[in-house]
Amino acid sequence: MNVLLTCAGRRNYLVQYFQEALSGRGEVYSADASPDAPAMEEADRAFLVPPVDAPGYFDAVLALCRKHRVRLLISLNDLELSLLARQRERFLQVGTWPVVSSPEVIDTCWDKWKTTRFLSSCGIGSPKTYLSLLEARRALRSGELHFPLVIKPRWGTASIGIFYPENEEELEFAYRYSKANIQRTILAAASKAGGNRSILIQERLQGQEHGIDVINDLEGGYVCTFVKRKLAMRSGETDRAVTVQHPELESLGRKIGERLGHVANLDCDVFLLEDGCRVLELNSRFGGGYPFSHAAGANIPAALIAWAERREPDPSWLTVQPQVIAAKCDRLVLRRSKVDESFCGY
After folding, report:
1. pLDDT by residue (tens digit) across 21-65?
2. Is 346 helix (H, G, I), strand (E, B) or coil?
3. What is the model's pTM?
4. Exposure on the CB side of residue 244, measured as CA atoms within 13 A
5. Angle at CA 45, nearest 5°, toward 44 and 51?
6. One domain for residues 195 and 306
7. HEC per residue, 77-132
8. What is the pLDDT of residues 261-281, one digit of tens each?
9. CATH number for position 274
10. Distance from C-alpha of 272 to C-alpha of 277, rounded to nearest angstrom
11. What is the CA radius of gyration of the chain?
C-alpha cells in the first residue's frame, strides 16, 4: 500500500498523517514540480515531475505509479483535479486508485458560479453573486445588493485576485484590475473559458465563519461531517480553529455530500448569519482546515486506506472531539534528501 501525494507543496502534515496510518505497511511518496517543496523532504521518497500543465505531466505520474506500485493517488492542487478526473481510467489500469471526484463534480466546485447554482438547486443559501459590473450595479441601485462586496475569480484558488471594494470607485477599479491581473497568474488558462464572465461580484458575508469537512467514501457515499469554528484566517486559509458540535451544520454537510456525490474529503466554507447559513465555497480535496479535524481525533487518511483495501474503517476515525483548539505555525524544513528526477523528462 504505497501512497502518492501530487503537487505536495507545503502539505507536510498530510505526508505524516499517511505515514502514521500505514504504520510501515507501505510508503508515502511526494511529487512536485519544485525540488524544494517542503513536503518532498519528509516523504519516504520524493519525485520531481513536470508542471501540471506540461504535456508530459500525466505520463510521468502514470509511469511513477506503475514503477513504484502506488495504490492511492491524491492530488492537493485545484488546477490538477479536473485534469486528473479525466485521466482516472489510465491510472486504474495500472492498479492505482486516484482519489478524485468525477469531472462533473470537480467542475461544480472549481467554477464558483456553478457552485452557487448547485447550492441553489439544493435549497442551500450562498452569497448573492453576479457575473458582470452591469448586473451588480443594477442590484446596488435596486437595494438588492449593498457594500462591502467581494471581487474574485470565477475559477479561483489560494485567494488569488480577491478584493473587497467598499464603494463604487473601488468596485470599478477592483473589477478591472482583477480581470487584467488574473491573466498573469496560474488562473489565466482556466479564466479564458469565461471570457467577459470570468470575474464574480459577491456580497461580503458578515457573520461567524465555519469550516466543514464533508466525508464521502471512495464510491461517493456520504459518511460524516466535521465542523470547526474559525478563529483566525491567514492568506485565505484557516489559521486557528476550534472543533464544535453543530447539528445544523452537520445536517448541511450530509445534504451536500449526498447531493454532490464527491469522493473523499470536501472542504466547505460556511457563514452563520441571523437568518441562517450561507455556503461560500466547496473544494473537492483535502483543504487547509482538515488538520484541525485530525488534531481532534479524525483520521481520514486511515479511512481512505481501509476503503482502498475493501475494509471498514474504525468508527473512531470518523469522529472528532469537540472544543479542541489548534493553531498553525511556520517551521523550516532543510533540504537534505536527494530528489528522484528520473520522471521529470516526460
Report:
1. 999 999 999 999 999 999 999 999 999 999 999 999 999 999 999
2. coil
3. 0.95
4. 16
5. 135
6. no
7. CHHHHHHHHCCHHHHHCCCCEECCCCHHHHHHHHEHHHHHHHHHHCCCCCCCEECC
8. 999 999 999 999 988 999 999
9. 3.30.470.20
10. 4
11. 20
